[in-house]
Amino acid sequence: MRSDIRLALPSKGRLQQGALDFFTRCGFSVKASSTRGYIGTIGGLDGVTALFQRPRDIVLSVANGGVDFGVTGLDVIAEANVEERVHVIHDALGFGKCRLGVAVPEDWADVRTTADLKVKAAQLAQSGLLRVATVFPHLSDRFLRRAGITPFEVIEAEGSLEVLPEIGAADIICDLVETGNTLTQNRLRLLDDGVVLTTQAALVANRDALERPAVMRVAVELLEYIEAHQRAEGFFLIWANVRGASFEDVGRLVTTQTTLGGLQGPTIAPIYANPHSSPTTPSASTNGKPASQWFSVSIVVSRAELTDAIEQLRSIGGSGVIVTPTTYIFEEQPARVAALKRLIPSITRA
Predict the structure, then answer these.
(1) Three-point CA angle 145, 150, 155, nearest 5°
(2) CATH of the domain at 24
(3) Which of 128, 279, 296, 308 has the least CB density, counted as fewest CB within 10 Å?
(4) Could you tell me if 240 and 313 are in contact, meaning their C-beta atoms sit under 8 angstroms apart?
(5) Structural domain includes residue 211
(6) Nearest-CA neighbor of 56 among 189, 183, 170, 156?
(7) Is residue 338 part of a domain?
């Protein structure tokens, strides 16, 4: 049995750069080897080796135990049909989003839904089968059968599937769609109810590998930092100095503003007077009380609230306002970590 820990990342395709950027933002910078391009290191995850593979190969490597973790698309995972050996530990990494859908030629004006396609398939059956070109034969076959579309023939193909109906190599396609522009350029369109699944990047693990305490610890660490980063995206931490007669006085002043509540409430702390600084001119009284002390106020707000929060701090006499993006927001144990620990309870008791 292997003693090392391996994480496979996409080496090409729509997920490659997204995965590298995402891991860097989460605090795990990936660096490829200068001599062997398919292997690398992951900063922040000591003892974990990065491997670079095609997205389709990643799920198979995880399933057969060649690697312990992998990042690939939900579409690839579903197509591989390896649920018994592969556990999806995070199903929404937030990049690589698109749809797997059934597209028909634009000149099939009377085919708008799967019900229409069912009629069309029956008509074509008089001279042949409805030919469906796809990279996802398992998912395509299941979707069409569930829609009652028969008979049909699945044609496995690679590359630019959009051209196949035009050149007569297929009647329709089942392929990944992001914006739909490529379909339009090739005079194709999605059926109104033709989305097989929506997909994005996911983090998977080999189920047996999770029985190893060292692998489980890496899984928990990955989830903790991924969840904390995703929770922090789009939020900013604001610090400001506010004068007030007392802690309570400043607290009341801040909480009268609609945007200054923070996550659970503003943090307010007295500022230790710097004996070497120049004396400041006392500000006007607050609520009829002399403002004789500076307090530091810090809050976390969303991007949509940022401008209002700054203006509201200024309106109560806030100065020296500092704003910085948040990298992580760690709160209670993430739901995905709890679910993972329930999956392998023997490890968590060890």
Answers:
(1) 80
(2) 3.40.190.10
(3) 279
(4) yes
(5) yes
(6) 156
(7) no
